[in-house]
TrEMBL record:
UniProt-annotated location(s): Cytoplasm
Keyword Cytoplasm among UniProt keywords: yes
Protein known as: Glucose-6-phosphate isomerase
E.C. number(s) listed in UniProt: 5.3.1.9
Provenance organism: Streptomyces subrutilus
Active site as annotated: E366 (proton donor), H397, K521
GO cellular component: cytosol
Keywords of the record: Cytoplasm, Gluconeogenesis, Glycolysis, Isomerase
NCBIfam families registered for this protein in UniProt: PRK00179.1
Catalysed reactions, as listed in the record: alpha-D-glucose 6-phosphate = beta-D-fructose 6-phosphate
Protein family membership: Belongs to the GPI family.
GO molecular function list: carbohydrate derivative binding; glucose-6-phosphate isomerase activity; monosaccharide binding
Lineage, opening ranks: Bacteria, Bacillati, Actinomycetota, Actinomycetes, Kitasatosporales
Function according to Swiss-Prot or TrEMBL: Catalyzes the reversible isomerization of glucose-6-phosphate to fructose-6-phosphate.
Length: 557
């Protein structure tokens, strides 16, 4: 290689798009042109079985992607040139790969077996992880058995998690996903929005004597969470006669910040700890999962962790050709870098996964929504996509039209299960085949479409032919598992965590900081006095000044 071309692993990393590996892909893309999946399957009917992989309990079919063996080889070369494997090892080994915050990135240590050794600054963190897990399990058992009672001695029947972002989305998503495994006598609610309506609706029908609040905040300074927690404390004390001692029986905290937890009035004995090497959006299998553990029980929670761990091992040890997170990450790099794909749809065909894509939005977009590289240089390539989607079949009757016949390339993941959950009564379980028929039909239609000749052959009037033609060639991944269990959910989440990691590594961005959320927070603090007291806010722009004035007028101030 000539020195001017640079390599992806030296200072020329910022010039990803000028590396030989990227240029080779660009050339390949030109040759690929408009090659249709119909042709790829004609040339190689074995694709349907050959382009599939297994990771844990997940069967992953990538045959309906706009790739050939050559594309995949070139993408793997790009991964190798950009040092994905080395960064992966650095992450698993506790190196401080979150450079802008000077932190290790060790969510994988949260599910490491008891006897594993993972060191941060020379200290093995695994014993502390299991100590907290054991403490969570003991507490969850106490709540589930009724041994932990409220201030009046009443049994806890309601658990309200107050948190936002990574301190909400994970447990809220997983509670929905694993409802069938949960204690149905417990009511779980999740409050995140600083809009008072959220807390109001969550508690309006609850009895404070039977309600446990879990205040989940890594920093314990997040304004939404602290505001809601303060209001929840007021609601509780109003309902229980005002004795402050009630707080200790009805509030627990999940945090890294013991000092702030104590300042809030929560007994530090009722704090479940985690650490700065757990990123907020990667924290759901830490103490942040306590509400879920109470709902499904410690055993099922450990099965979930086992699922995460199985995918970690797969990611770390499977060869590149068989490595599913690597493959999915690279496919995304291919579409974003060479097909101008701007978004990525995740479409679960399970009602229980109704919050799954919302969870992935933070995981992916807060991680890879970056425009400078790890050295602070502007990137010259596109980074993370807009992630979106809702469960099928609802989306089919809403936005699938655009995926089928719109102008954009929208790679999509279809996630489905062979079996309905066992608790469904036979009449409802029988609907599962119809659900899954839709699942398979959609990826078929997206890939192969319907040609104008096929439309004509149905006797369609000529003027309608273009409208009824489906060009097809829309790339999809199909992820199929036998059942939605805690272990499978863990595998799915870890699969996406590692996919996001791979993309961040290739794009040479820090996937683990989130400076982009800071400015809005600072400005909101500055603007609030203008709304409440009409205070002058220095530096407020004319548009916002006028909006604030209108707000105050409409608010009768
Ligand atoms: O939105 C920014 C963010 O820091 C997320 O990364 C995090 O998950 C969320 O806020 C909540 O933070 P905390 O758990 O500290 O309250």
């Amino acid at each position: 290689m000539n020195a001017q071309q640079g390599t992806a692993s030296d200072e020329g990393r910022t010039k990803l798009t000028r590396t030989p590996e990227w240029l080779a892909l660009a050339k390949h893309r030109e040759q690929f042109g408009r090659t249709h999946l119909r042709r790829l399957f004609e040339e190689d009917p074995g694709r349907g079985t050959g382009y599939t992989l297994r990771a844990g309990d997940l069967h992953v079919d990538y045959s309906k992607h706009l790739v050939t063996d050559e594309t995949l080889a070139l993408l793997r070369e790009l991964a190798s040139a950009t040092g994905v494997a080395a960064l992966r090892e650095a992450m698993f080994n506790g190196e401080k790969i979150n450079t802008t915050e000077g932190r290790a990135v060790l969510h994988t240590a949260l599910r490491a077996p008891r006897d594993a050794v993972v060191e941060v600054d020379g200290e093995n963190v695994v014993p502390a992880v299991h100590e907290v897990l054991d403490k969570m399990a003991a507490f969850a058992d106490q709540v589930r058995s009724g041994e932990w009672t409220g201030f009046t001695g009443a049994r806890i029947r309601n658990v309200v998690n107050i948190g936002i972002g990574g301190s909400d989305l994970g447990p809220a998503m997983a509670y929905e996903a694993l409802r069938a495994f949960s204690d149905r006598d417990l009511t779980l609610r999740f409050v995140s929005n600083v809009d008072g309506a959220d807390l109001h609706e969550a508690v309006r029908d609850l009895d404070p004597a039977e309600t446990l609040f879990i205040i989940a905040s890594k920093t314990f300074t997040t304004i939404e969470t602290i505001t809601n927690a303060t209001s929840a404390r007021g609601w509780l004390l109003d309902g229980l006669g005002g004795d402050q001692a009630a707080v200790a029986r009805h509030f627990v905290a999940l945090s890294t910040n013991a000092e702030k937890v104590t300042d809030f009035g929560i007994d530090p004995a009722n704090m479940f700890e985690f650490w700065d090497w757990v990123g907020g959006r990667y924290s759901f299998d830490s103490a942040i999962g306590l509400s879920l553990m109470i709902a499904i029980g410690p055993d099922a929670f450990r099965e979930l962790l086992g699922g995460f761990e199985a995918m970690d091992t797969h990611f770390r040890t499977a060869p590149p050709e068989e490595n599913v997170p690597l493959l999915l990450g690279l496919l995304g790099v291919w579409y974003i870098g060479f097909f101008d794909a701007q978004s990525h749809a995740v479409l679960p065909y399970s009602h229980y996964l109704s919050r799954f894509t919302a969870y992935l939005q933070q995981l992916d977009m807060e991680s890879n929504g970056k425009s400078v590289d790890r050295d602070g240089q502007p990137v010259e390539w596109q980074t993370g996509p807009v992630v979106w989607g809702t469960p099928g079949t609802n989306g089919q009757h809403a936005y699938y039209q655009l995926i089928h016949q719109g102008t954009r390339v929208i790679p999509a993941d279809f996630i489905g299960f062979a079996n309905p959950l066992p608790e469904l009564p036979p009449r409802l379980a029988a609907q599962h085949d119809l659900l899954m028929a839709n699942f398979f039909a959609q990826t078929q239609a997206l890939a192969f479409g319907k040609t104008a000749d096929e439309v004509r052959a149905e006797g369609t009037p000529e003027e309608l032919v273009p409208h009824k033609t489906f060009r097809g060639n829309h790339p999809t991944t199909t992820v199929l598992a036998a059942d939605l269990t805690p272990a499978v959910l863990g595998q799915l989440i870890a699969l996406y965590e590692h996919k996001v990691f791979v993309q961040g590594a290739v794009w040479n961005i820090d996937s683990f900081d989130q400076w982009g959320v800071e400015l809005g927070k600072v400005l909101a603090k500055r603007i609030e006095p203008a709304l409440t007291e009409g205070a002058d806010v220095p530096g407020l722009d004319p548009s916002t000044t006028a909006l604030v004035a209108t707000y105050r007028r409409l608010r009768g101030r």
